[in-house]
Amino acid sequence: MKIKVQVVIEYEDETTETVVEEIGCLQRAAPSIETLGIRLDEGKAILANLQESVVAHQVAEHMKKHEYCGHCHQPHRRNGHQTITYRTLFGKLKVKGRRFYRCVCQEHSSQTFSPIAALFSERTAPEFSYIQTKWASLMSYGLTVDLLEEVLPLSTNVAAVFRQTQTVGQRLEDALGAEQYMFIEGPARKWAQLPPPQERLFVGIDGGFVHGRTKENRKAGWFEVIVGKSLLNKHPSKRFAFVQTYDEKPKRRLFETLQSHGMQMNQDITFLSDGGDDVRELQYYLNPHAEHILDWFHVTMKITVLSQIAKGMQDAAFVKKALAALERIKWRLWHGHVQNGLDAIESLLLDCECEEEADPSRDKLHQALDEYDTYIGNNREFIPNYADRYRYDEIISTSFAESAINEVVSRRMVKKQQMRWTKKGAHLLLQVRIKTLNDELRSKFEDWHPGLKNEVQNTAEMPLAV
Questions:
Q1: Tens-place pLDDT, residues 382-422
Q2: CB under 8 Å to 30, separation ≥6 — which residues?
Q3: CATH topology of domain 199-295+397-421
Q4: Which residue, among 311, 301, 298, 296, has the nearest Cα to 365 in the 3D structure?
Q5: Three-class DSSP category at 394
Q6: Which of 171, 263, 418, 460 is deepest in the core (most CB within 10 A)?
Q7: Other Cβ atoms closer than 10 A to 406
Q8: DSSP 3-state assignment of 100?
Q9: In a 3-state reduction of DSSP, which class is residue 221?
Q10: Element (H or E) spanning 369, and its range?
Protein backbone atom coordinates (compact mmCIF):
# COMPACT_ATOMS: atom_id res chain seq x y z
CA MET A 1 0.00 0.00 0.00
CA LYS A 2 1.29 3.45 -0.91
CA ILE A 3 0.08 6.49 1.02
CA LYS A 4 0.79 9.96 -0.39
CA VAL A 5 0.81 12.97 1.95
CA GLN A 6 -0.01 16.23 0.22
CA VAL A 7 -0.42 19.85 1.24
CA VAL A 8 -2.92 22.15 -0.47
CA ILE A 9 -2.06 25.86 -0.56
CA GLU A 10 -5.05 28.12 -1.20
CA TYR A 11 -4.41 31.85 -1.67
CA GLU A 12 -6.87 34.56 -0.74
CA ASP A 13 -6.02 36.22 -4.04
CA GLU A 14 -8.44 34.60 -6.50
CA THR A 15 -6.02 35.17 -9.41
CA THR A 16 -3.46 32.81 -7.87
CA GLU A 17 -4.05 29.14 -8.49
CA THR A 18 -4.34 26.61 -5.70
CA VAL A 19 -1.11 24.65 -5.29
CA VAL A 20 -0.96 20.97 -4.38
CA GLU A 21 2.43 19.61 -3.27
CA GLU A 22 3.46 16.14 -2.19
CA ILE A 23 5.40 16.26 1.06
CA GLY A 24 5.65 12.57 1.86
CA CYS A 25 4.97 9.05 0.72
CA LEU A 26 4.51 6.07 3.03
CA GLN A 27 5.00 2.49 1.90
CA ARG A 28 3.09 -0.18 3.80
CA ALA A 29 3.00 -3.96 3.31
CA ALA A 30 0.66 -6.27 5.22
CA PRO A 31 -0.57 -4.58 8.42
CA SER A 32 1.33 -5.41 11.60
CA ILE A 33 1.70 -3.82 15.00
CA GLU A 34 5.00 -2.26 13.86
CA THR A 35 3.58 -0.68 10.67
CA LEU A 36 0.29 0.70 11.98
CA GLY A 37 0.12 4.47 11.72
CA ILE A 38 3.11 6.77 11.24
CA ARG A 39 6.52 6.09 12.74
CA LEU A 40 8.56 8.80 14.46
CA ASP A 41 11.10 9.12 11.66
CA GLU A 42 8.31 9.37 9.08
CA GLY A 43 6.46 11.95 11.13
CA LYS A 44 9.65 14.03 11.49
CA ALA A 45 10.27 13.92 7.75
CA ILE A 46 6.69 14.92 6.94
CA LEU A 47 6.79 17.80 9.41
CA ALA A 48 10.11 19.03 8.02
CA ASN A 49 8.80 18.95 4.44
CA LEU A 50 5.54 20.60 5.47
CA GLN A 51 7.40 23.37 7.27
CA GLU A 52 9.64 24.01 4.27
CA SER A 53 6.68 24.14 1.89
CA VAL A 54 4.58 26.44 4.06
CA VAL A 55 7.43 28.88 4.70
CA ALA A 56 8.39 28.94 1.01
CA HIS A 57 4.85 29.94 -0.02
CA GLN A 58 4.57 32.48 2.80
CA VAL A 59 7.85 34.11 1.76
CA ALA A 60 6.82 34.12 -1.90
CA GLU A 61 3.57 35.88 -1.04
CA HIS A 62 5.45 38.37 1.12
CA MET A 63 7.95 39.09 -1.67
CA LYS A 64 5.11 39.59 -4.16
CA LYS A 65 3.66 42.39 -2.01
CA HIS A 66 6.99 44.27 -2.09
CA GLU A 67 7.79 44.02 -5.79
CA TYR A 68 6.02 47.33 -6.45
CA CYS A 69 6.33 50.69 -4.79
CA GLY A 70 3.49 51.27 -2.35
CA HIS A 71 3.34 54.97 -3.31
CA CYS A 72 3.67 55.20 -7.09
CA HIS A 73 3.08 51.49 -7.83
CA GLN A 74 6.12 51.26 -10.11
CA PRO A 75 8.13 47.98 -9.97
CA HIS A 76 11.22 48.03 -7.79
CA ARG A 77 14.56 47.45 -9.54
CA ARG A 78 16.25 44.27 -8.38
CA ASN A 79 19.53 44.40 -6.50
CA GLY A 80 20.39 40.71 -6.24
CA HIS A 81 19.46 37.79 -4.04
CA GLN A 82 19.76 37.08 -0.32
CA THR A 83 19.63 33.87 1.69
CA ILE A 84 18.67 33.82 5.36
CA THR A 85 18.97 30.89 7.74
CA TYR A 86 15.84 30.52 9.89
CA ARG A 87 15.67 28.00 12.72
CA THR A 88 12.27 26.52 13.54
CA LEU A 89 10.83 23.70 15.61
CA PHE A 90 10.62 21.58 12.47
CA GLY A 91 14.02 22.16 10.96
CA LYS A 92 16.56 24.75 9.86
CA LEU A 93 15.49 26.50 6.67
CA LYS A 94 17.44 28.37 4.01
CA VAL A 95 15.06 31.15 2.93
CA LYS A 96 15.85 32.88 -0.36
CA GLY A 97 14.61 36.25 -1.49
CA ARG A 98 15.49 39.30 -3.56
CA ARG A 99 16.88 42.66 -2.60
CA PHE A 100 15.45 45.77 -4.28
CA TYR A 101 16.46 49.35 -4.89
CA ARG A 102 14.13 51.78 -3.22
CA CYS A 103 11.87 53.83 -5.45
CA VAL A 104 13.08 57.39 -6.18
CA CYS A 105 9.58 58.82 -5.83
CA GLN A 106 10.26 59.32 -2.10
CA GLU A 107 13.31 59.98 0.04
CA HIS A 108 14.66 57.05 2.03
CA SER A 109 17.44 56.57 4.54
CA SER A 110 18.92 53.69 2.52
CA GLN A 111 19.15 52.93 -1.19
CA THR A 112 18.19 49.25 -1.01
CA PHE A 113 15.99 47.03 1.10
CA SER A 114 15.33 43.35 1.68
CA PRO A 115 11.75 42.23 2.34
CA ILE A 116 12.83 38.93 3.90
CA ALA A 117 15.37 40.64 6.20
CA ALA A 118 12.52 42.77 7.55
CA LEU A 119 10.28 39.72 7.84
CA PHE A 120 12.86 37.63 9.71
CA SER A 121 13.78 40.19 12.34
CA GLU A 122 14.87 37.25 14.50
CA ARG A 123 16.58 34.21 13.04
CA THR A 124 15.02 31.78 15.50
CA ALA A 125 11.28 31.11 15.52
CA PRO A 126 9.72 32.40 18.78
CA GLU A 127 8.07 29.06 19.53
CA PHE A 128 11.37 27.23 19.00
CA SER A 129 13.04 29.69 21.36
CA TYR A 130 10.28 29.09 23.92
CA ILE A 131 10.61 25.30 23.78
CA GLN A 132 14.42 25.46 24.03
CA THR A 133 14.47 27.77 27.02
CA LYS A 134 11.65 25.98 28.83
CA TRP A 135 13.28 22.57 28.54
CA ALA A 136 16.75 23.97 29.30
CA SER A 137 15.39 25.50 32.49
CA LEU A 138 14.10 22.10 33.62
CA MET A 139 17.01 19.85 32.63
CA SER A 140 20.63 20.10 31.57
CA TYR A 141 21.55 21.68 28.26
CA GLY A 142 22.82 18.33 26.99
CA LEU A 143 19.59 16.52 27.80
CA THR A 144 17.62 19.34 26.18
CA VAL A 145 19.56 18.85 22.94
CA ASP A 146 19.04 15.08 23.07
CA LEU A 147 15.30 15.44 23.62
CA LEU A 148 14.83 18.06 20.90
CA GLU A 149 16.68 15.98 18.35
CA GLU A 150 14.88 12.81 19.43
CA VAL A 151 11.33 14.06 18.87
CA LEU A 152 11.67 16.90 16.35
CA PRO A 153 13.16 17.08 12.85
CA LEU A 154 16.01 19.40 13.75
CA SER A 155 19.67 19.48 14.66
CA THR A 156 21.07 21.72 17.38
CA ASN A 157 23.88 21.77 19.94
CA VAL A 158 24.55 22.63 23.56
CA ALA A 159 26.12 26.01 22.76
CA ALA A 160 23.07 27.13 20.78
CA VAL A 161 20.64 26.11 23.53
CA PHE A 162 22.83 27.81 26.14
CA ARG A 163 23.00 31.06 24.16
CA GLN A 164 19.25 31.08 23.55
CA THR A 165 18.50 30.48 27.24
CA GLN A 166 20.88 33.23 28.30
CA THR A 167 19.37 35.63 25.74
CA VAL A 168 15.86 35.02 27.06
CA GLY A 169 17.09 35.34 30.64
CA GLN A 170 18.70 38.69 29.81
CA ARG A 171 15.51 39.86 28.12
CA LEU A 172 13.55 39.01 31.26
CA GLU A 173 16.16 40.86 33.27
CA ASP A 174 16.01 43.97 31.07
CA ALA A 175 12.21 44.09 31.42
CA LEU A 176 12.49 44.39 35.21
CA GLY A 177 11.72 47.85 36.55
CA ALA A 178 14.20 50.11 38.31
CA GLU A 179 15.37 49.28 41.81
CA GLN A 180 13.95 51.38 44.68
CA TYR A 181 14.71 51.61 48.36
CA MET A 182 10.99 51.89 49.20
CA PHE A 183 7.99 50.46 47.37
CA ILE A 184 5.26 51.62 49.76
CA GLU A 185 3.19 54.07 47.75
CA GLY A 186 0.30 56.43 48.45
CA PRO A 187 -1.21 57.79 51.69
CA ALA A 188 -2.80 55.52 54.29
CA ARG A 189 -6.29 56.88 53.58
CA LYS A 190 -6.12 55.46 50.05
CA TRP A 191 -5.05 52.04 51.34
CA ALA A 192 -8.26 51.89 53.38
CA GLN A 193 -10.28 52.40 50.19
CA LEU A 194 -8.79 49.34 48.52
CA PRO A 195 -10.89 46.15 48.44
CA PRO A 196 -10.13 43.96 51.44
CA PRO A 197 -7.59 41.24 50.67
CA GLN A 198 -8.80 37.68 51.00
CA GLU A 199 -6.14 36.46 53.41
CA ARG A 200 -2.61 36.86 54.72
CA LEU A 201 0.29 36.31 52.33
CA PHE A 202 3.27 34.30 53.60
CA VAL A 203 6.74 34.74 52.13
CA GLY A 204 9.70 32.52 53.01
CA ILE A 205 13.25 33.47 52.03
CA ASP A 206 16.34 31.30 52.32
CA GLY A 207 19.67 30.74 50.63
CA GLY A 208 21.42 27.92 48.81
CA PHE A 209 24.90 27.49 47.35
CA VAL A 210 26.13 26.71 43.84
CA HIS A 211 29.55 25.66 42.54
CA GLY A 212 31.20 28.74 41.06
CA ARG A 213 33.76 29.36 38.35
CA THR A 214 35.35 32.30 36.59
CA LYS A 215 37.24 32.58 33.33
CA GLU A 216 40.53 32.45 35.19
CA ASN A 217 39.54 29.83 37.73
CA ARG A 218 37.23 26.93 36.94
CA LYS A 219 37.09 25.99 40.63
CA ALA A 220 36.10 29.28 42.24
CA GLY A 221 34.41 27.82 45.32
CA TRP A 222 30.74 28.51 45.98
CA PHE A 223 28.43 31.47 45.75
CA GLU A 224 25.02 32.02 47.35
CA VAL A 225 21.67 32.03 45.62
CA ILE A 226 18.72 33.63 47.44
CA VAL A 227 15.43 31.84 46.84
CA GLY A 228 11.97 32.83 48.01
CA LYS A 229 8.46 31.48 47.81
CA SER A 230 5.14 33.19 48.48
CA LEU A 231 2.04 31.30 49.59
CA LEU A 232 -1.58 32.32 49.27
CA ASN A 233 -4.32 29.83 49.98
CA LYS A 234 -6.24 28.53 46.94
CA HIS A 235 -3.68 30.14 44.59
CA PRO A 236 -0.56 28.66 42.99
CA SER A 237 2.62 29.60 44.84
CA LYS A 238 5.09 32.04 43.32
CA ARG A 239 8.87 31.80 43.42
CA PHE A 240 11.77 34.17 42.88
CA ALA A 241 15.53 33.70 42.92
CA PHE A 242 18.72 35.65 42.29
CA VAL A 243 22.47 35.42 42.76
CA GLN A 244 23.07 37.63 45.77
CA THR A 245 26.42 39.16 44.75
CA TYR A 246 25.36 39.66 41.12
CA ASP A 247 21.80 40.96 41.16
CA GLU A 248 21.36 44.73 41.27
CA LYS A 249 17.55 44.71 41.66
CA PRO A 250 16.73 42.20 44.43
CA LYS A 251 14.03 44.28 46.10
CA ARG A 252 12.33 45.11 42.80
CA ARG A 253 12.35 41.41 41.94
CA LEU A 254 10.65 40.46 45.21
CA PHE A 255 8.14 43.33 44.91
CA GLU A 256 7.03 42.32 41.41
CA THR A 257 6.71 38.69 42.52
CA LEU A 258 4.40 39.77 45.34
CA GLN A 259 2.43 41.99 42.99
CA SER A 260 1.94 39.06 40.62
CA HIS A 261 0.43 37.28 43.64
CA GLY A 262 -2.09 40.09 44.08
CA MET A 263 -0.41 41.99 46.92
CA GLN A 264 -2.04 45.34 47.81
CA MET A 265 -0.91 48.07 50.17
CA ASN A 266 -3.57 46.93 52.68
CA GLN A 267 -2.41 43.31 52.43
CA ASP A 268 -1.37 41.50 55.61
CA ILE A 269 1.91 39.78 54.85
CA THR A 270 4.34 37.71 56.90
CA PHE A 271 8.01 37.43 55.97
CA LEU A 272 10.01 34.52 57.37
CA SER A 273 13.78 34.36 56.96
CA ASP A 274 16.95 33.02 58.54
CA GLY A 275 17.82 36.41 60.03
CA GLY A 276 20.73 37.27 57.72
CA ASP A 277 21.38 40.99 57.34
CA ASP A 278 21.01 41.05 53.55
CA VAL A 279 17.84 38.96 53.54
CA ARG A 280 16.29 41.03 56.32
CA GLU A 281 17.04 44.27 54.47
CA LEU A 282 15.42 42.82 51.35
CA GLN A 283 12.04 42.57 53.10
CA TYR A 284 11.80 46.14 54.39
CA TYR A 285 9.59 48.88 52.89
CA LEU A 286 7.62 46.61 50.58
CA ASN A 287 4.32 46.69 52.47
CA PRO A 288 3.08 48.81 55.40
CA HIS A 289 1.26 45.85 57.01
CA ALA A 290 4.18 43.42 56.86
CA GLU A 291 5.48 41.51 59.87
CA HIS A 292 8.94 39.98 59.97
CA ILE A 293 9.63 36.71 61.79
CA LEU A 294 12.82 34.81 62.43
CA ASP A 295 12.45 31.29 61.13
CA TRP A 296 12.09 28.80 64.02
CA PHE A 297 13.94 26.13 62.06
CA HIS A 298 17.16 28.16 62.09
CA VAL A 299 16.72 29.05 65.77
CA THR A 300 16.39 25.44 66.88
CA MET A 301 18.89 24.06 64.34
CA LYS A 302 21.66 26.15 65.88
CA ILE A 303 20.74 24.84 69.34
CA THR A 304 20.99 21.29 67.98
CA VAL A 305 24.50 22.05 66.74
CA LEU A 306 25.42 23.47 70.17
CA SER A 307 24.09 20.31 71.82
CA GLN A 308 26.27 18.13 69.60
CA ILE A 309 29.35 20.20 70.48
CA ALA A 310 28.53 19.93 74.21
CA LYS A 311 28.18 16.14 73.99
CA GLY A 312 31.75 15.97 72.71
CA MET A 313 33.19 17.46 75.92
CA GLN A 314 35.07 15.29 78.41
CA ASP A 315 33.48 16.54 81.66
CA ALA A 316 30.27 14.48 82.00
CA ALA A 317 28.90 16.74 84.75
CA PHE A 318 29.38 19.84 82.63
CA VAL A 319 27.85 18.12 79.60
CA LYS A 320 24.71 17.38 81.60
CA LYS A 321 24.60 20.97 82.84
CA ALA A 322 25.16 22.42 79.37
CA LEU A 323 22.48 20.26 77.77
CA ALA A 324 19.97 21.29 80.43
CA ALA A 325 20.85 24.96 79.86
CA LEU A 326 20.39 24.60 76.11
CA GLU A 327 16.95 23.06 76.65
CA ARG A 328 16.01 26.08 78.83
CA ILE A 329 17.24 28.45 76.12
CA LYS A 330 15.18 26.62 73.52
CA TRP A 331 12.05 26.64 75.73
CA ARG A 332 12.34 30.37 76.45
CA LEU A 333 12.81 31.29 72.80
CA TRP A 334 9.92 28.98 71.80
CA HIS A 335 7.64 30.96 74.12
CA GLY A 336 9.01 34.35 72.98
CA HIS A 337 10.94 35.14 76.18
CA VAL A 338 13.89 36.56 74.28
CA GLN A 339 15.59 38.43 77.12
CA ASN A 340 15.39 35.40 79.40
CA GLY A 341 16.86 33.31 76.61
CA LEU A 342 19.73 35.76 76.16
CA ASP A 343 20.36 35.71 79.91
CA ALA A 344 20.55 31.91 79.82
CA ILE A 345 23.04 32.08 76.95
CA GLU A 346 25.18 34.56 78.90
CA SER A 347 25.08 32.29 81.94
CA LEU A 348 26.25 29.29 79.92
CA LEU A 349 29.01 31.40 78.39
CA LEU A 350 30.25 32.26 81.89
CA ASP A 351 30.18 28.58 82.84
CA CYS A 352 32.36 27.76 79.84
CA GLU A 353 34.85 30.44 80.84
CA CYS A 354 34.99 29.13 84.42
CA GLU A 355 35.95 25.59 83.38
CA GLU A 356 39.46 24.90 84.62
CA GLU A 357 40.30 21.73 82.67
CA ALA A 358 41.76 22.20 79.20
CA ASP A 359 39.24 20.91 76.68
CA PRO A 360 39.23 21.92 72.98
CA SER A 361 35.50 21.26 72.83
CA ARG A 362 34.92 23.88 75.52
CA ASP A 363 36.53 26.59 73.40
CA LYS A 364 34.53 25.42 70.42
CA LEU A 365 31.31 25.53 72.46
CA HIS A 366 32.20 28.96 73.80
CA GLN A 367 32.79 30.34 70.30
CA ALA A 368 29.57 28.83 68.94
CA LEU A 369 27.59 30.16 71.93
CA ASP A 370 29.04 33.62 71.45
CA GLU A 371 27.95 33.58 67.78
CA TYR A 372 24.49 32.35 68.78
CA ASP A 373 24.21 35.13 71.38
CA THR A 374 24.97 37.70 68.65
CA TYR A 375 22.52 36.03 66.25
CA ILE A 376 19.63 36.09 68.73
CA GLY A 377 20.49 39.61 69.87
CA ASN A 378 20.49 40.98 66.32
CA ASN A 379 17.13 39.34 65.59
CA ARG A 380 15.38 39.76 68.94
CA GLU A 381 12.65 42.00 67.54
CA PHE A 382 11.73 39.30 65.01
CA ILE A 383 11.25 36.49 67.55
CA PRO A 384 7.53 36.04 68.36
CA ASN A 385 5.80 33.61 70.67
CA TYR A 386 6.23 30.56 68.46
CA ALA A 387 4.11 28.43 70.77
CA ASP A 388 1.06 30.68 70.33
CA ARG A 389 1.50 30.85 66.58
CA TYR A 390 1.84 27.06 66.43
CA ARG A 391 -1.37 26.56 68.43
CA TYR A 392 -3.24 28.77 65.97
CA ASP A 393 -1.81 26.87 62.97
CA GLU A 394 0.24 29.83 61.79
CA ILE A 395 3.43 29.31 59.83
CA ILE A 396 6.59 29.56 61.95
CA SER A 397 9.14 27.92 59.68
CA THR A 398 10.54 28.45 56.20
CA SER A 399 10.30 24.76 55.39
CA PHE A 400 8.35 25.73 52.26
CA ALA A 401 11.27 27.98 51.27
CA GLU A 402 13.67 25.09 51.89
CA SER A 403 11.63 23.04 49.43
CA ALA A 404 11.82 25.94 46.98
CA ILE A 405 15.63 25.85 47.14
CA ASN A 406 15.53 22.18 46.23
CA GLU A 407 13.00 22.88 43.48
CA VAL A 408 14.64 25.98 42.00
CA VAL A 409 18.36 25.46 42.58
CA SER A 410 19.36 21.98 43.70
CA ARG A 411 17.56 19.83 41.11
CA ARG A 412 18.86 21.86 38.16
CA MET A 413 22.23 23.18 39.33
CA VAL A 414 23.63 21.12 42.19
CA LYS A 415 22.51 17.52 42.68
CA LYS A 416 22.67 15.60 39.40
CA GLN A 417 23.87 18.60 37.40
CA GLN A 418 27.41 18.72 38.78
CA MET A 419 28.68 21.61 36.70
CA ARG A 420 30.18 24.90 37.74
CA TRP A 421 28.49 28.20 37.02
CA THR A 422 29.46 31.80 36.51
CA LYS A 423 27.34 34.18 38.54
CA LYS A 424 25.84 35.72 35.41
CA GLY A 425 25.09 32.36 33.81
CA ALA A 426 23.43 31.02 36.95
CA HIS A 427 21.43 34.20 37.53
CA LEU A 428 20.01 34.35 33.99
CA LEU A 429 19.15 30.64 33.98
CA LEU A 430 17.36 31.11 37.31
CA GLN A 431 15.15 33.82 35.83
CA VAL A 432 14.02 31.47 33.04
CA ARG A 433 13.53 28.58 35.47
CA ILE A 434 11.47 30.77 37.82
CA LYS A 435 9.16 31.82 34.98
CA THR A 436 8.77 28.18 33.97
CA LEU A 437 7.97 26.99 37.49
CA ASN A 438 5.56 29.91 37.99
CA ASP A 439 3.86 28.99 34.70
CA GLU A 440 4.61 32.47 33.31
CA LEU A 441 7.17 31.81 30.57
CA ARG A 442 4.61 31.23 27.81
CA SER A 443 2.77 34.44 28.65
CA LYS A 444 6.07 36.36 28.46
CA PHE A 445 6.72 35.03 24.96
CA GLU A 446 3.17 35.95 23.99
CA ASP A 447 3.80 39.50 25.22
CA TRP A 448 6.94 39.71 23.10
CA HIS A 449 5.35 37.95 20.10
CA PRO A 450 1.57 38.56 20.11
CA GLY A 451 1.17 36.31 17.07
CA LEU A 452 1.91 33.28 19.23
CA LYS A 453 -1.21 33.88 21.26
CA ASN A 454 -3.37 34.59 18.24
CA GLU A 455 -2.27 31.43 16.46
CA VAL A 456 -3.07 29.30 19.48
CA GLN A 457 -6.54 30.82 19.75
CA ASN A 458 -7.20 30.39 16.04
CA THR A 459 -6.12 26.78 16.17
CA ALA A 460 -8.49 26.13 19.05
CA GLU A 461 -11.37 27.82 17.26
CA MET A 462 -10.67 26.11 13.90
CA PRO A 463 -9.73 22.48 14.54
CA LEU A 464 -7.91 20.66 11.78
CA ALA A 465 -10.09 18.51 9.55
CA VAL A 466 -9.21 14.80 9.56
A1: 999 999 999 998 889 888 878 888 888 888 887 665 678 88
A2: none
A3: Nucleotidyltransferase; domain 5 (3.30.420)
A4: 311
A5: coil
A6: 263
A7: 13
A8: strand
A9: coil
A10: helix 360-378
